[in-house]
Amino acid sequence: MKPQKRKPGRKPVASELRHRINAGRVAVKNQIAFFESQFGQVESQWKEDDTRVTFADFAISEKVFTELRRSFPHDDFCSEESNPEDEEMLLEAEYAWILDPIDGTNNYALGIPMCSISLALLRNGEPVYGYIYDYARRTLIEGGEGEGVLDGTHRCRVLADEPTVQSHFATNFPFDPADMALTRELFEQYRVRCFGSAAMNLAYTATGKLEACLDFRVKVWDVAAGFAMIKAGGGEVVYFGEPAFPLNRFHVRMPAVRYVAGNPAFCRIVEERIRGGGGKA
Questions:
Q1: Which of 86, 115, 206, 245 is the most buried (most CB within 10 A)?
Q2: Structural domains in the chain?
Q3: Number of other CB atoms surrounding residue 62 within 10 Å
Q4: Distance between CA 112 and CA 108 in Å, rounded?
Q5: Which keywords, in A-to-Z order, does the entry hold (predicted)?
Q6: pLDDT tens, 79-135?
Q7: Is 132 labelled as part of a ligand binding site?
Q8: Rounded CA separation 143/149 (Å)
Q9: Rounded distance, CA 236 to CA 218, Å?
């Protein structure tokens, strides 16, 4: 049986999409007990790009994809923990899955609860549904096109009011000096949160806890699930550089994603600031 090829213009088949949404939710939930059992206990190593990895990262990646492949053997599967020596993967199937088995691995290894499992479902290269397990609150956050956003059992939306000096946005550090120069006034004008997990930054934005999320150094596996939720919750994603999606190929050495996402009004403020600064954007 040949893989399903992408068909531009084809309307979503509800049963195909619904089957995958349900299966993705089960696959993430099935890893929660293991994820929690290894929290703060598992040994870690450092990869060649100076990011931390643990045995739990590899184990969760293998278990999630093994489970999903049983039902969807012709989908594409992409994980942060793919072998960097592998060739670049062309995404040719209609559906693809992108997994960050532990987002916030530094926090996870050190016993800091701001960490998550992040899984995204793509259709024709675009994120259509995402799941982020928020370990700090023991809550599964999920959402996608036509489905809205669920924070556990509570329906949520992206904040829509005009930003004020009390507005909060999230980011990750360190910043390149040029990017810091472009964004300095944002740090002076608004309140900032840094959780050490790009997925959690986006999840809290999608559920209306934060105004927006700004980042210059994350990868597609960090943002795919969150981008699906942001759009489902009425928010926007603005890129500074090449758009991350639609995604046609995958490799762990892919370039960083530079973006702001969340409240459309806040995104416009950030976009004007960065594009007006004449920097990397």
A1: 206
A2: 14-156 (3.30.540.10), 168-276 (3.40.190.80)
A3: 13
A4: 6
A5: Magnesium, Metal-binding
A6: 988 876 777 899 999 999 999 999 999 999 999 999 999 999 999 999 999 999 999
A7: no
A8: 4
A9: 17
